[in-house]
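Protein record

Derive tokens from sequence
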Amino acid sequence: MKISRILLVLGSLAYLSFGLLFFINPDAITDMDGIVLPTRSSANHIRAILGGMEIGLGVLLIYFLMRKERIIYGLIVLSGSIGAASIARLYGIAFDGAGDTSNWISFIAEFGFGALALVLYFIEKKGGNGE
């Protein structure tokens, strides 16, 4: 349970941090990856989806952390959300030729985080203590 809680805390902090960055200044964050936001409308889409959605996921993970019996649901959400992101990134690497160092590092981190959440989910589901 302790490792599961730590992972959910880290996941919530990551989602909240990135979400706030995208919410506050979508241009600065997208500029790091060479993404040009040609209109204020496009910046607002980034703000809403990458900012608002990630803030929402961070808050949801905190909600799951508040009660011991909800930890397992937090692990499902974390594994599904970050796992889907890692699969989408791998697709881009494989089919779009986006295999630069930044994408590989992000893929490894996302996949590892998602896989660990999934393993901890199965441990928690079996009644293990996740420590």
Observations:
- The chain has a mean pLDDT of 93.
